[in-house]
Amino acid sequence: MTNYKLTCAVPGRCEFDIASPASAYRDRTGHLSLWGISKFEQDTATICGNHGFMKSSRDMASKNNIRFFLISEKRIMSPTCHSKLSWSGVKQVHVRFNVSCITPGSVGNKRVFSDTESGDWYMKSENRLVAVNWENRRSVKFPKSYYEIISKLVEKEEEILITRRQDALIPPDRAFKTTIKTRYSDLDFNDHPNTAQYYQFCCDAASKASRSGYYRHYTSDIVNYPVMETEATFLGGCGPEEQLEIHTWQDECDITKLYFAIYLKEARIFQACFVLDSKISQDKVLSSL
Hints:
- By secondary structure, this protein is an alpha+beta fold.
- It contains five helices and eleven strands; from the N terminus they run E-E-H-H-E-H-E-E-E-H-E-H-E-E-E-E.
- It has an eleven-stranded antiparallel β-sheet.
- Helix 1 runs antiparallel to helix 5.
- The radius of gyration is 19 Å and the shape is globular.
């Protein structure tokens, strides 16, 4: 994580140029995968944290036993995110983080990834983190001093991507179903599957559904169609060697919208909506090897 050039580092805002995502973040088509994008965002968040972007839950843990948990996330991609950003010719990406909103028990961060030369954006995303008591796993309010500090960092003029709470996504009877078993390597430091793994679970289920002929229009492997937008809600966690049931279905009116719900036994622990391009990508990715 040393190959980056810091251009701004103040509380509430962090900007830097970083090497474009490595080949390990690409899918089997050679393009940047959805779970690779999630991991790349986590890499950049670490850089922000190391440069004082925002006090983390670690700063409150010793006194208040509070940790942050991701509750929702939205991501919008431009066409060049799938094409240009996946090519080995793009050497660096400009990244900008800012604090987008805060409530007494949650905080939002917005990220913009753009071309270092033209300034054109590849991807915009926002997540919301909720404060949770680590012992009883219940949501709590921030300490007053923390809330006051972060409130001053919110960029009120900045466009907010998450404008409302995502509606509950309940699978219809006709939903396509598949199962996976979680691995120890799926977990992160919170003993839950890493955020990127949930996206990978959904993408694998979508590929299986499309290859079986379940979706309308998407009859070949769906990985060939660029994902243009994602909206996800994280409702619960699970451990290793857990059997998860993944449901996916298509919007009745809009073929580009695919829905996902992941269940641990009877509990829905994750849900998402992906918006796909209706056309197969014609971009050919050159090997960087």
